[in-house]
Amino acid sequence: MIQGIQEELKDALEKLTRMKRDFQKSLSELPEGSLTMRKNKSSCYFYHSFRRNGKKINRYLNQRIPADASLISQLTRRQFIKKSLPILNKNIAVLERALENLLPFEPEQVMKTLSCAYQQGKKGAESWLYPDLFLREWAGREYEKNTSHPENLVHETLCGIKARSKAEAMIIDHLSDYQIPFRYDAVIEINGRRYSPDFILLRPRDRKLRYWEHLGKMEDPEYVLKNASKLMAYKEAGICVNDNLILTFEDRKHPLTSREISDTISTWLRGRMGRLFQSF
Length: 280
Prior knowledge:
This protein has 280 residues and is α+β, with helices and mostly antiparallel strands. It is 45% helix and 18% strand. The protein contains eight helices and nine strands. Strands 4-7-8-9 form a four-stranded mixed β-sheet. A three-stranded antiparallel β-sheet has the order 1-2-3, with helices on one face. Helix 6 (221-236) links the parallel strand 8 (208-215) and strand 9. Helix 5 (166-178) crosses helix 7. The two termini are 16 Å apart. Mean pLDDT is 88; it is low at 272-280.
């Protein structure tokens, strides 16, 4: 759970820092000065206020002239950025302090700090955890989905999600049955390119993200080559086979079976926490 929070804080910090950097760059490129307005009955008159050789100048801007209308827009953006930067700076500082002070929480490590009197019996640290509302909240949160080729979403599942293949529909039903929180066909960004892993999962026993790709056309060389390239991009982003990336395969002669799916879930996702999560 703590790792999930930490990743969200890091993501928020990265986005705010990138926004601050973009704002600062824009600010250096926008015209100096400010925008003022004077009202006269039903009319509004805009002026560009700036200093030249130590003297304040107010130059009238005619909104009907494209160059002046553009300058009004640029001055408005400049003021918006100037008001935004102090807020961004404060929030960035708050997130940096939070990440610095956030303590890792590993139940097994906490158990090791207890005296031997508290370590009798066979119960693991997860036995003392309260039902994790974070798992439910993560599963129910909105996320960006892959919208390409919606005509392929034709395979029904018991939970109402439509899948792109029969095998993916089977995986969805098994994940739902085992109550593994997942996101189907979610969009992620790696080095400026967008990808859609078949499944992003939150493993209940340690609240760590796992990715699952099902490669269903292994008889097609072009398909295999395309997915090999995607897996290399995943590796660059730290999504690696036998670590946090699960792979299953099939071709026309060897379809994915329900047993394979169950074994994969039991091996990589359930572990000792499976029964605890099912009891929620």
